[in-house]
Amino acid sequence: MDPVVFLDRDGVISEELGNGKYISRWEQFRFVSGSLEAIRLLTEQKLHLFIASNQGGVGRGIVSQEELEQVTERMLKEIAKSGGRIQGVYYCVHSPENTCLCRKPGTALFERAAERKKISWKKSIVVGDALCDLTAGRTLGCQTVLVLSGKTQREETADWSFQPDHIADSLIAAVPWILKRVRQR
Prior knowledge:
The chain is built from five helices and six strands. The protein is of the alpha/beta class. It has a single domain, classed as Rossmann fold (3-Layer(aba) Sandwich), CATH 3.40.50.1000. Helix 1 links the parallel strand 1 (4-7) and strand 2. Helix 1 packs parallel to helix 5.
């Protein structure tokens, strides 16, 4: 069973649009500074990388499934061009008001990834920019990393029921900690 690094998309890999807006076209997509390099570095260390992301714009009718797939395809091509590799992308496309099991903090997205790859939850890491990302990881027994390149500010974590295992400014800043943790386990 291998360790996996699960990455949220918006706020970790791509910049948040803010104000409840959703990325519906490639022209709106901007990589967070250093995220392509981070994915490349993690790939070079033979880590298995998956994306697990809530994409409620589809369920709300703001983004079509086709638009989401087109953006994902372009994102994966750019990641591959930079030397990175994502082994699977799992989205919850239900609206935030939906009570589905796949919307984080639910764990169904992660469990779907486990259908493809035997995963050691204890050795795996969930990287996200919001409490819902890290709650899903904590529920599964994963290590959690909060990146401050998205929705959450460091001060907000004081009110959380648990603290992330690590807080970093961005995915690239989290890479040394991720590599150290994966090697320790």
